[in-house]
Please model this.
Amino acid sequence: MPKLTKAKLAAYRKRLLEILEELGVKLEHMEDSVLRAENETSPDEVDEFSSENYSQEFQIDMIENEEKILREVYDAVERLDNGTFGACESCGAPIPEMRLEILPYARYCVPCQRNAEESEEKEAPIQPPPPSDPLG
Ligand SMILES: [Zn+2]
Model:
């Protein structure tokens, strides 16, 4: 079992809830600017996200990325609730506190995270070159 004191768990919960709030605000802002770009209204309301420096596709990628983190953070809060927070989901080893300090929603210990990333890469299908269009 991970040796995290109640005080530490409470601190992590606080951190996670703060991240949730930040991500929520950020996502709202980003989604808002994508919608605004779609509607092409009020061009004078330009902010950092709706500026032309960001293509809409890039913004959607960013939103998807933030949503992924949001889910991870929700899961971490759930682990806090059921008492498995701080234990690697794969091997059960305690996740080093140094790692939790940086990434309080870390799901795996470092070696397992590496394995997960590697197998993710392996699972990604290698796309064959598209067949030439018979209709030319
Ligand atoms: Zn592990």
